[in-house]
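Narrative summary of target 7.
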Amino acid sequence: MTLVAGVDSSTQSCKVVIRDLDTGAVVRTGRASHPDGTSVDPAFWWDALLAALAEAGGLSDVAAISVGGQQHGMVALDASGEVVRDALLWNDTRSAGAAADLIAELGVDALADRTGLVPVASFTSTKLRWLRDAEPENAARVAAVALPHDWLTWRLRGYGPDGSSPLGPDLEALTTDRSDASGTGYWSAATGEYDRDLLIAALGHDAVVPRVLGPGESAGTVLPEIAGHEGCLVGPGAGDNAAAGLGLGAAVGDAVISLGTSGTVFAVTEQGFRDATGIVAGFASASGEHLPLVCTLNASRVLDAFARVLGVDYDELGALALSAEPGAGGLTLVPYFEGERTPNLPDATATLSGMTLANTTRANMARAAIEGMLAAQAVGMEAILSAGVSATRALLVGGSAQNPAVQAIAAQVFDVPVEVPEPGEYVAAGAAVQAAWALTGSRPEWPLAVVAAPEKDTRPEIMTAYAAAAAAYAG
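Modeled conformation, tokenized:
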């Protein structure tokens, strides 16, 4: 049996999944936690990766590995390979002002044309601009800029800080893939090239950036002391959403709705995407196509908050929601609990509107929570589809997707047939696909099990009420 490994280095933890190359069956797994916060020393990610690999039984019998990771995080390195400061993660909103400055200086249309993106606080370019303005001494030290998966791939191969890694701080050895590069704000999915002028506008000077690998291309091999043998290939890695798309086997015509810490909606398309409003980010896929994507900061945590307030668990929350009518009796939640990325409202808070003495019930509140969480994702779906993208199905994934109430209400909120795959670590699964691809030269076709396909039951009144409540908030 030939084995391949996939890694998901997410905001909250590192997961390792080792799979059979021929069937895709999971053979063993490992996991380790990451610290909380939106600014993290990358050394914690490295320690967690090593711990998760150990829990998964190591790499001594594994032929290839690839790393999927949280997008956008700023890993700034000096000339000796040391991390200049804690990495600012995708959900760190302190760079919102820097995003506005870049837009004011360069113009929203020009930025959309050059990169497919309009800067928001999440993107790497805005974090570099924040560093330039808030910590100029640290910015001056930056010799290279990497993303979380880039840095972990580099470390797996034996590179790292001068004096504490076998191969030393060869910054030119840094690699990335087109999906993660497309989320920086200084790389174009249309041209396949870095826009050095935008990098300089952000950081204040030029710097080394990782070489962009193609789908199925190898970054090199794992350091033998880490792998336990020579020749363990390292795949290109990917941003988390693109890796999840690979893990789901998503192809042109598929949309994916992911309900995790954040919420994302993306579709696989043959053509690139340009949206000067900034609602849709024109990312690249990890398989050679494009991946127009909308991201929200608030997804499953919305349900956590309401379950806590109502004193119930997830199952009880779902049962309460299903006992209420669609529309929650007039209650509408706009779930901007942690600010919001789409729309770009970093300082926003949530609102629950339409309350009367008659409709403020536990059941309606539970229903409003699920409708609001899903409606926020449906806004993203509508933005993607309105540009002419065709979707024949929507794959609903994430922990919340297994809740029967979420499944039923999704069929009422979305105007595309919904399918729910079995629970799985799809980012790590997609990274394992990359590992297999690098090893064999072709993308594996592993089966996807679907556990629910609720009948389409679109209720337009849910989105009508949500749109009115969101407009009133924004206004």
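DSSP finds 16 helices and 24 strands in the chain.
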